[in-house]
Design a protein that fits this description.
With about 600 residues, this protein is mainly alpha-helical. Helix content is about 35%, strand content about 10%. The strands form six sheets. It has a three-stranded antiparallel β-sheet with strand order 7-13-12, with no helix packed on it. Strands 1-3 form a two-stranded antiparallel sheet. A hairpin with a 5-residue loop joins strand 12 and strand 13. Belongs to the SusD family.
Amino acid sequence: MKLNYIFCLLFTSSLFFGCSLEEIPEATTTKGPIFSSESGLILYTNSFYNMMNGKNLHRADAMSDYLARKDTPPFITPGNFSAEVSSGWTWSDLRNINYFIKNCNDPKVPLAVRNNYIGIARFFRAWFYYEKVKRFGDVPWINKPLDVSDTELLTKGRDSRVMVMDSVIADLNFACANITAKTEGSRSLVTKYAAFAYKSRVCLYEGTLRKYHTNLNLASSSANLLTQAAAAAKVVMDEAGYKLYDGAGVDKSYRQVFINPAPVATEVVLSAVCDLALNNLNDGNWYWTSGTYGDKANFIRSFINTYLNIDGTPYTNNPAYKTMLFKDEVKGRDKRLQQTIRSGDYKRLNNGALEAAPPLFSYTFTGYQPIKWALDDMYYDTRDLNINSVSIIRYAEVLLNYAEAKAELGSLTDADWAASIGLLRKRAGITGGTNALPKVIDTYLQSTYFPAITDPIILEVRRERGIELCLEGFRFDDIVRWRRGELMQMEWNGMYVPSLDTPLDLNEDGKLDVAFYQKLPTKVSGVTYVEVSPLISGKANPQLLSNGTSGELTWFNNIPRKWENKHYLYPIPAGDIITNPKLAQNPGW
């Protein structure tokens, strides 16, 4: 429902839409049973968690610079997106939260207990508004449950980004000060340290966005926000007792965080927990393995090139990297690479038997097929059967938020580096450069991704963030706040193919896996054949080789992706502008 008319409905008997209290008959719903006991406050605040949409975070990077997919994102495909098809201008969750905050005042419940749950509600109001500001920029700030008599507020225009984000941070400060739960109990509930971790995320986003989007004329407030981001992260680092999970060694620990049924308690701060008994599952395998369902998203080679060698040196320092075969380029690298894509001796269970599982070209267009969220048993590959929990906030992000905020402030020290980026790289098996700040610019990283950045520390922090948090829903937001939207136009390139008609063994198990052709050769049993002719049945073939008969795979070079400045914000849906012209449309839309 839309802000400009949702509140024209007077919810006198049904105030709890979308929450766990719907068993109370609408005609007899009163505040008493809810706000006069802690159990009622628990029930009400539990209704807020649906806002997080946590079970779908495994697919939240579907629109990003580092993934090729079966189609181009409509948002940046010329002519495919407009205010008429835009969405997200929904406000029902906000009324639910504001109603709770206004009415959580029954003296039968001790003040500290009430403030704990108000803190949780204000955490979620901050969550709600942060998502709105990221998407639309200026939005109306509403901090009370509106009724039909609130005519002026019902038809108001948008408040400034500064005012709204100041209010978001005030909500988070209250949450940090008043939520009593620390890290005890389930990782599926908001705790004090989840609030601090989330504050570090919000302040980092807003601080860097104001720094790099100079057109907003807000750069003077950037340093204060970055300082708050670093301070919030440091509270978690110093007090919460989290640490990076390393119990499965450098070869498996990273991925274990994403495939474990229960949240890995040492590292996961907040999680969407799946439960087979309750049939509360996700579709991770179906999304990341199906040739027909989902986006068939797979990494591009330009991003894979950013994974360091195991000794901490850039992979692209090797002059032969451009023509390195897949079987060779995945060796001797940051151990997160083998835990993020199919490569090497990766195997999957098929009816209880382990089978070699090289990249499948019935799924991948580039050769770099993700495994980060997919369970290794093929049983889970159909429908939403996955039992692995989906992390919403984890300690690794807190370390990255701290490092980036301090790097942007120019105050990151060797000790800070070792306690943040160094720990992440050590968990990934990297042996060099973990204890001291980098002093040399990686020219590949700079020229390919961040040509305006001349500080090697910021470059390396951004490298680390991309690798550590890939497929967790951060990438598009990072591109926006760094003002690097042009990255969304990067070529969708894939592995190097030395010649046509020559089957390749991608995982060196002695079995040939894939061959590329323009005129179909005599087939070898077990090999997948991919046509790379310029035309197929008179139509442009989206799958080609960069040099015609050899080179990197390319995908969808024939379909343009165009980034314009207007894409840093979404348009407000046209219907809402018509209903309330005071909202005004975002520039360019």
